[in-house]
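Worked Example 4.2. Read the sequence first, then its structure tokens.
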Amino acid sequence: MQYRTLGRTGVQVSSLALGAMNFGRIGRTTQDEVTAVVDAALEAGINLVDTADAYSGGESEEMVGRAVAGRRDDIVLATKATMPMGDERNHQGSSRRWLVTALEDSLRRLGVDHVDLYQIHRWDPRTSDEETLSALTDLQRAGKIRYFGSSTFPAHRIVQAQWAARDHRLSRYVTEQPSYSILQRGIETHVLPVTEEYGLGVLVWSPLASGWLSGVVREGRDVTTNRSTFMPQRFDTAIPSNRARLDAVERLARIADEAGLTLIQLALGFVTAHPAVTSALIGPRTLDHLRSQLAAAGTVLPADVLDAIDAVVAPGTDLAAHEKNDTPPALLDPSLRRR
């Protein structure tokens, strides 16, 4: 396992980190299965575990808490807030009112008195940066969080938050957690240059593109990923963007074969090769999934392989741009772009 410094914090984290989105009912995993995955991940050298309050309605945090009990100080523990937690309209977002409550709920579910990294799961356009950063700074000063970061923020919002922290003399986001894979390279255009400029640690999610780069999605095969059971439209090859992804996967599989690598090794080796990326978040449901992904821990792709990948998916290109989670609200809601 390789280790890298998380932004400018001085904290050393593994180049592969354990994402817990599949823990609980989303991934149909039991506590025993989760504990076995966490045990194997820590034994392999992973030292960062990332979850969120919204994962299976808090169940993921509860399972992570039980799995890491007794060894809390050996891991960098991260969670997130802002996604809706129930039907109450104010049980979401990044207001002080909600973040204070959400953090207390997360600490209770995790069974800890603090988290190392608390992340704003999505940019909340209804809440000012000053409101959010002041709440996070107070929680940090209270010792309940060590650092805080953003997740899936557009580049201009990352910059604006940095300026707001400076202008109001508040603590700043020290990490960003964007989606990044060979098939979704859009963050190379704006987000990664910004994180490098401001010295942010970058924890990328979905490096296997929701299973497209796991090796199981291939021409002529039925799609059998867990994600395809509740998001079938993302794997329907009658949709042009999905057809483009499948064509790219076939070409990438040949590149992997020629390099003596699995497709997973190619995919994870690609994202961790970018100098702006600190860690790639892997999200295994089973021990077999974890082992296949851990095999990429030491993968270093040579220049000719990286060049071959660029020839399949050009730098800065998203093959499914409509699936991005950082689209400005005015592009999604006509009422926000019309008088």
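Now turn to a second chain, presented in exactly the same format:
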Amino acid sequence: MKTCPSEFNCPVEATLQLIGGKYKAVILWHLIENQKRFSELKRLLPKATEKMLTQQLRDLENDGLIIRTVYPVVPPKVEYSLSDFGRSIIPVLNAMCNWGEEYLSSINAEIKSCK
């Protein structure tokens, strides 16, 4: 169920509504280069239960960030890819990645200095 834009108090809140789920940003990150099947995403997110991963994918699809393509073959083949709208979030994901790398570097430096 989509949230009405008037329900947001600030742009950060609107962004987090779309990508703030437990695995949403990570799923989007893995879809930047190419589409993935459910099993590939499950391998990339080993801590995610199938139920949680399915829910996160549904939310991303309902919000228009990803496209779910079902191929009429047996067994069924389903692939997920970024929509054009989903591609517009790539700069945000890149910024999150860069910030995370700096943060991890500082933590690793702290851990080494404590030994």
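Notes for the reader: The CA atoms of residues 24 and 57 lie 8 Å apart. The helical segments are 11-19, 24-30, 38-44, 50-62, 84-87, 90-114.
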